[in-house]
Amino acid sequence: MATMAKKKTIRTIPQERTPVREQDPTVRARNFDEVSLGYRLEEALVEAERCLQCADEPCVRGCPVGIDIPGFIQKIAEKHYHGAYDILTDTNLLPSVCGRVCPQENQCEGVCTVGESLEPVAIGRLERFVGDMAIKEGWANIPYIEPNGYRVGIVGAGPAGMACAADMAKAGCEVVVYDALHEPGGVLKYGIPDFRLPNTVIDAEIEKLRRLGIRFECNTLVGRLFTIEQMITEMGFHAVFIGTGAGYPSFMGIPGESLNGVLSANELLTRANLMRARDFPKYDTPLQPGKRVTVIGAGNTAMDAMRVSLRLGAEKVTCVYRRSKTEAPARVEEVHHAEQEGIAFNWLTSPIELIGDASKAVRAMRCVRMELGEPDESGRRRPVTVPGSEFEIETDMVVFAIGTNANPILGQTSKLRLNKRGYIETDDSLATSIAGVYAGGDIVTGAATVIQAMGAGRKAARGMKAYLGLRDTDCVYQPDTDDPSGMRFGIPVEEHNFARIRLR
Amino acid sequence: MNQAQTSSFEIVAREDFSDVTYLLEVRHPMLAKAAKAGQFVIVMEHEQGERIPLTIADFDREKGTFTLVIQAVGKTTREMQQNCRVGTSLYAVVGPMGIPSVIAHKKKVVCVGGGLGVAPIFPQARAWKESGAYVIGVLGFRNRGLVFWEDKFRACCDELILCTDDGSAGVKGLVTEGIRLAIEKHPDIEELVAIGPPVMMKGCAEATRPHKIKTMVSLNPVMVDGTGMCGGCRVKIGETVKFACVDGPDFDGHLVDFDDLTARLSRYKPAEKEASARYEESCRIRGDEALAQASASLVDDRPSADA
Predict the structure, then answer these.
(1) What's the alpha-carbon Rg for chain B, to the nearest Å?
(2) Cβ neighbours, 10 Å, residue A403
(3) What ipTM was reported for this prediction?
(4) Which of A301, A333, B65, B241 pairs with A52 at a CA distance of 20 to 30 A?
């Protein structure tokens, strides 16, 4: 910054946000290739110029993991791409994933200073640009790791577990990540479709974790194959992190939900993405494709379910959501993409019954119109039924994408304290009721985003390091006194907990 | 690169009970140690395979193995019948899954297995026996030729009633006939456990309902992950909806909506049929090719008559 000749102002930066090339909506709606093609080098350079490098840095505070955003953008502008990657990976392990799936408009980009008068800097696209370049060039920042003798077990190989595993491995722990599915990645693999986040990107990021020495053990249902308590008492883990995700899809409890052709978005997406039912019969997992698909909900999962259905050959895909477009929880870009691809949106509509045919397959959805009333406890205006507004939508496949409840397995098999909704209770450092066991992500907070889960994984890692008596490598230690009364055996008192003394 | 301990599942024994029923014994010491009666596993035969839930038919903690008894009914199970030999490995095995059966203190119980449910009822019969209960086994087969594991059941049942459709072994009739005989002889039966096709379990539940005997059934609906994540296995239990994978698989048979279960089991029938037909076709083609090759080599080997 100091070397900059002239200070940038809102007038001197490129005024227009650099558009990103995308597959044509009519073409992409029939394939699983990625929708957004990402910035080319010259586009990234133009967009990097749009960052004011303002002193306030609201974007850093807007980021759940506090990435030094102006820092990495500055490195791009200086054409020092590896430097940009270094800054990103200081705080974010998976830039090519987060650049694609973070809801930037509610985070960094939502508070960007440029955004006050122009379109905000496309931080997500720049992050993805750097992450993808790292994958292409084979960059990986593998630090020299001094083993500290501690073993850490991670339950769930999704974003929370991956982030926690990386931090613990970097601190010198031997890390094993368990997952019940046959491939690591969690929701990144089974949930988010390839056209939004290609599997090759996830595999590349997982490979980097392996290079940190992290071991992945799939096909392992923790709780049932062994319990959390056994991990600590019998299997020699000094600390455990639980990041199993929420994973128990909700239904509405309206008549007709058990009709054939009615399923959760999780089931549709898992079949299509992880199990590759879209390549049936080359892959064995079947998926009865709908011709007229109706998806209930308007979050990212709902958008994914709709756009997957379209790509599986549906003729008409309809979204049904009881609030209006403004309240839709999905990323703005996803709603926009879905609209481009020809998804029909029924805002302010709520299903009340699913109607079947003689063979117990769904044939129609009965709905009512809604209008927005007074704000509810979430601050959003509460939808209320418009009397006499019932109507039917012809449909042969109904997908519920209205959120998830807490997965019960760990509650059934351990003494972990749960809250009354069944999620794991933690303190501020994400420690659970069992000593040495930490938890984070959807299984603590309920359904949230990938970056929030990763943030929780990293936060838990800080707690675990403190628990194990490891110096938090994120903090620079500065003894504030050399007063001998603050010393014991020649070691400052605050450092006692960080001394790596192990009795074997 | 990382040879994980949970990524190689070798088949150590195989037995064929009939042209459709076969047994696989799989090495998985951790699973064998953890398994309890009533639990299931999910298996993938190969990387492109589907995940199929199968109830554990036996486990041996000393040997570190567990056993599956499989009926070749669809594409995957037929392909497994074809490919799973001793020394080969399954691509993925995860489990034990589901809540173990509650083996409480009961004096007298009936364990009913029919068709594909005969093998999975074995761990329950054994567990009940070990708990000190008087165990009456009721097993249903189509005919004498299909009977298996009679000795294993005799070893853990105080009484065993065999039922065959044609009367070629034991009692002639369905398992419900066996249940009727058992109830007649023992008015003090406290619990009945049944595993088999939905229609059989429904029959069992109806047979015990008038006698108010607690009846547990083990449900095996369509599921993908088996960890509660997909919700494909939801079943109606009375007024509530449960996921068989994490809330079950055992449920009160008097509350299960079997018609709903049966309808939902047919969800992917057309695709399954298509897969089966394709598989048969590819087997036929491969068979024909093999035949053609064999006859071609025969022709080649034969000294030419013209020469």
Answers:
(1) 22
(2) 16
(3) 0.84
(4) A333
